[in-house]
Design goal:
Length: 472
């Protein structure tokens, strides 16, 4: 057996062992694998089986340490109940339409995604873990950035006699389509900017800025008109929901300047304007044709649809619309549930921001990331009218992270800080203990101590000047 295979097998076994003993870190590793889906580097581009091994390892680790997550099982069910309902509708639709191989693959993928979201709810239970999970998601977007930089592949499009080049990985399992790449970059940009605005350590911010430059680079190379519209509509939501608006505005202006000055293709603006003359655009006219076919299929099969993944049996491509995709594949009931998922996800993001705000529980990192998730969901809603990704992992991961943010913002209680009683025996270590308590408790502890001292002084003064006191 080649040494390379033995080496990879050893790493896989080691990673599986770590995931069993430390399920939360296994969950972070699983986030990376779900979004990157590493493939073999040979021409056949076969998807590697790491994801399945790590997934089973995390499940086994969760079962072995079930006592740690038992209290959050009900929360996990609440978080994925709409996804589970959508899965049931998908399975019934597949059964009603012959359970084709395409339907079996789609049902299996969505069942795995539902279980993955349940694992996230079980193990992400604090602001620190939430920030680590979002940071891992942002890091997974860097995988796509390095792929585009190291091995750029372009597709040629012709609209009205002009040539346009777009990033396109035809054989890539997860991110071959430039429209998928563009929406993923929008999500990564919002989450990275939210982390940048949060109170993180200084050394993290240059790394985040470097990642943001890469995300803007890939986004511009995709030249996606639907994603550009989604960015334009969702960015005001993101900016309004951030506390440090000047910092976010300055960083965004700098990123746009760098992007359009150094990275944007010369045809970027020209391609955006081609939507006016859509009659000469094959991409636009084919979308209209596909939408017409989807509407006919919805009218013919309103309750069960044609079965998940079966649309290509009726035409040359996918629906290029998430809402028509859901309704034509699994029926109008599935469309209602899908829209409900998006609506509840947006509500959870707004609620998380409200609960984590300074006037309530004051959790800055959750407050900032909730705004980024709300803008990401708005972008998903907008681009869903032009791209079919109703059952993709980035949609439901954004939705479940919004639910987790709301739960943490409402229920999280910071560890109590133990303060020594007044008059306790002093020692030579007291200054160090005092400094440590100040660092842990922050200005709130200092203000509390000052308020208590002021109240004690006022009480003593009232006691000295009271009538009973003067008469004795």
């Amino acid at each position: 057996m080649p040494r390379r295979i033995l080496f990879l097998l050893g790493i896989e076994c080691f990673a599986a062992g770590v995931c069993i003993t430390q399920p939360f870190f296994g969950t972070l590793f699983l986030v990376l694998l779900v979004f990157t889906r590493p493939q073999d580097d040979r021409p056949n581009m076969v998807q590697l089986h790491y994801q399945g091994v790590i997934f089973l390892s995390v499940l086994l680790g969760t079962l072995c340490r079930f006592d740690l997550v038992q209290a959050r099982v009900g929360r996990a069910f609440r978080g994925v109940r709409l996804m589970f309902l959508l899965l049931v509708i998908m399975w019934l639709s597949a059964m009603a339409n012959g359970y084709t191989p395409q339907s079996a693959y789609q049902v299996g993928e969505f069942a795995t995604l539902t279980l993955f979201c349940s694992i996230l709810v079980l193990w992400v239970d604090s602001p620190q873990r939430f920030a680590l999970t979002v940071g891992t998601l942002v890091c997974s977007a860097i995988y796509l950035v390095q792929l585009v930089i190291r091995n750029p592949r372009m597709i040629q499009e012709q609209i009205g006699g002009e040539q346009f080049e777009r990033v396109f990985f035809r054989a890539l399992v997860n991110w071959g389509n430039p429209n998928f790449q563009a929406i993923f970059m929008i999500i990564a940009i919002y989450l990275a900017l939210s982390l940048f605005a949060a109170n993180l350590r200084v050394w993290m911010k240059p790394a985040i800025l470097g990642g943001l430059v890469g995300f803007v680079y890939v986004f511009l190379k995709c030249q996606s008109r639907g994603a550009t519209l989604a960015l334009v509509i969702s960015f005001p939501v993101f900016w309004l929901f951030q506390k440090r608006k000047a910092l976010i505005g300055g960083a965004t202006v700098a990123l746009l300047f760098i992007g359009f000055a150094f990275f944007a293709p010369e045809t970027y603006i020209t391609r955006l304007l081609t939507i006016v003359n859509y009659e000469q655009d094959t991409s636009a006219t084919s979308r209209l044709e596909l939408w017409s076919v989807a509407m006919d299929l919805i009218r013919a099969h309103p309750l069960t649809g044609i079965g998940p993944g079966n649309f290509r049996m009726y035409t040359f491509s996918s629906q290029h619309n998430s809402y028509l995709q859901t309704a034509s594949d699994i029926g109008v009931p599935g469309l209602i549930v899908y829209v409900s998922c998006l609506a509840f996800g947006l509500f959870h993001a707004f609620s998380a921001r409200n609960w984590a705000g300074p006037k309530r529980n004051n959790i800055p990192v959750v407050f900032s990331l909730a705004g980024g998730l709300a803008a990401s969901i708005v972008a998903i809603i907008v681009q869903g009218f032009f791209t079919g990704f109703a059952f993709r992992e980035f949609v439901y991961t954004s939705l479940i992270l919004s639910f987790i943010a709301k739960c943490i913002a409402r229920e999280y209680v910071a560890p109590a800080v133990t303060v020594a009683p007044v008059g306790a025996t002093t020692s030579r270590f007291k200054p160090a203990f005092t400094a440590a308590a100040t660092l842990i408790g922050g200005h709130q502890t200092v203000n509390l101590a000052r308020a208590s001292y002021t109240q004690a002084q006022a009480g003593a003064q009232r006691l000295r000047h009271s009538p009973d006191r003067r008469g004795t």
